[in-house]
Amino acid sequence: MNALVDSGDAVGPAGAAGPSLGEADFAFLREFVLQHCGISLGDHKRQLVQGRLLRRLRALALPGFAAYCDLLRRDPESELGELASCISTNVTSFFREMHHYDMLVDELLPRWLEAKRAGGRLRIWSAGCSTGEEPYAIAMVLAEALGRIGTDVDAKILATDLSPQALATARKGVYPVDRLGGVSEARRKRWFLRGEGSFDGYAQVHPRLRELVTIQPLNLLHEWPMQGKFDAIFCRNVVIYFDKPTKQRLFARYAGMLESRGYLFLGHSESMYGLSEDFDLIGRTVYRKRS
Q1: pLDDT tens for each residue of 170-180
Q2: Structural domain ending residue among the three candidates 35, 57, 90
Q3: Residue 166's domain spans which residues?
Q4: What is the pTM of this model?
């Protein structure tokens, strides 16, 4: 859900609002971002990266980009999340690409929950969850399906992202009411608590949804601590900015984390064509693991 360095953004002339990002420092940042985030930054992104990172220089009281690059060299893990947040544009909404949720409601959740009535567990992973709209939307349809079967099933959603700011918003589960445009009126009444007083104009997701969703930081390019397998993985509008080798490695790792015949949901502009032989395309950006 994070579109890293969206090409629609723009910044002013180099040096207009602070230190300039020199060629050597930009070269280091390009390599660092490619290695740690899988994102390839073109030469034309230099001014944009400069503008995005100036706020980070101010927050850290650093005199320039050379000092920031030195910080990344000394302790890359401590600053990686903040760097990703600075150069990320979070593009997400509730029930974005509704056909994926229709498949969950009409086909997958009834089948999974019926099979797991007698035991077993249902696990869904929102990889690149951004500010939380996706996992909470999944939680809505999951909670509704659980209510229909009238039986307890061990069902959970894991939501992960690299951005500390995005995760903080997801954990709060509080959104401006105008961000609920994709949520039906019935679901707004059932799954959101309207704010009052100083929180007027905001809504918080229902505690039941928060019970279903576990939110954790995770870099998709690093080690994954999860042990069990997933019935479905949502990784939408994340891999579009990755280079080809990174996509191939990630899809192979997803295949290893999915149950037999598990499902992988990609974004509307993403495809596995020529990148993996572990999946079959069975719907609009919906892939099923072959075995």
Answers
A1: 999 999 999 99
A2: 90
A3: 98-289
A4: 0.85
What is the rounded CA–CA span in Å between residue 73 and residue 68?
A: 9
210 is catalytic: no
284 is in an annotated binding site: no
The tokens of 4 are what? 């890293």
Question: Is 134 annotated to bind ligand?
Answer: yes
Question: What token pair was written down for 251?
Answer: 């899809």
220 is in an annotated binding site: yes
Q: Residue 177 and residue 130: Cα distance in Å, rounded? A: 18
Of 25, 161, 231, 278, catalytic: 161
Last residue of a domain, one of 33, 65, 90: 90
Looking up tokens 């999946």 gives: 279
Residues 80 and 204 in one domain: no
Q: Is 123 annotated as ligand-binding?
A: no
Residue of 46, 52, 56, 187 with catalytic role: 52
243 is catalytic: no
Number of domains the chain is built from: 2
* Cβ 220 vs Cβ 131: under 8 Å: no
- First CA to last CA across the chain, in angstroms? 27
